[in-house]
Amino acid sequence: MQRGLEFHGGVEYNEAMDILKTKKIGFIYHPAKRDNDAVIERLALLARESGFLCVAKGYAEFADSDDCSEVDFMVVLGGDGSVITASDFAADYGVPLLGVNNGRVGFLTEVEISEFALALEKIKLGEFTLEKKMMLECSLFGEHYSCLNDFTVYKKNVAEVAHLNISVDGKSTGDILCDGVVISTPTGATAYSLSAGGPIIAPGLDCILITPICPHSMCVRPIVARADSEVLVTAYSECLLARAGDFTVQLHSGDNVLLKKSDVTCDFITFEEHNPYSLVRQKLS
Known about the structure:
- Helices cover 20% and strands 38% of the residues.
- It is of the alpha+beta class.
- The protein has two domains: 6-127, 3-Layer(aba) Sandwich (Rossmann fold), CATH 3.40.50.10330; 136-262, Sandwich (Tumour Suppressor Smad4), CATH 2.60.200.
- It is elongated, with a radius of gyration of 20 Å.
């Protein structure tokens, strides 16, 4: 589940989202980042003025209560890190997300703070769509983890090299000496994978992207696998497994990490179709 976030509220949401029955809206954000506390107060005021009811509740208290079934709609304030963290909760409970940018980049946010009032009006009128984003499931030591962006297997120490073997649907790509490898969703293609030389994935294309980090051979290139593929990463050296924006796990020689498409998606509220190519240029220029 999320770490370092507080949840405030919940929204009653029907399947078509053209009629809001109870008009409750919730906010999730990192209280220690930027001026989030003050911004949340402003957004909540706008929501009340627009006819929504804002229900406040501490995140830990909310997550441990029996109220999860009542939460159907969240506004996530922050940057991409906050959205990624909130996506775990959203996927677990089928909660659509609306990202409001208060971070540095904001690839995953839909609107700016100044556009929030208009976004609420569009939601009330049903003028939006739900974009279902693919998530990855990682299996390790009998535990299962999911992530919206990516998992990374990388070398344990700066002076060392990661010795890995990668198989796709049982077919080995060969042993690799590298700094690590990023296994990502199409959403994660514009994150760590892009920095490591991976491609941008076209909208609407579900796949699993395998991007080596600083491989010691020029013949080792990124791989785009089918969405229903199973990717097995075997460590032949001491390594670490990291989930985007969250935890790391120690890997020993011979450990296997299995990655595949998750059975759940994370639903994002969107108002228009975006051009991911110009967005990359705009956000990174």
